[in-house]
Amino acid sequence: MDCRIGCAACCIAVSISSPIPGMPEGKPAGIRCIQLTEDNRCRLFGQAERPAICVSLRPSEEMCGPTDADAYRYLEALERLTKPGE
């Protein structure tokens, strides 16, 4: 499965704990990654600076669902379930 162009749910809904160029402390959940273009494409795709978690995340029917809204709901729920201390 390929990413839906323009979705960016994984670049907004989830937190990233490792540094990102322009976001040295990482990215909180629900915050748009600074590396997203206006049309929701990753400026770091294929670059060495792209965080390992981003490289390892692969789209799937379960995660992405049929719509962008489904992807956001799934990833927001996953973020809540995996939040440390909860």
Automatic annotation (TrEMBL):
Pfam families, sorted: CxxCxxCC
Recorded superkingdom: Bacteria
Identification of the protein by name: YkgJ family cysteine cluster protein
UniProt organism field: Cohnella zeiphila
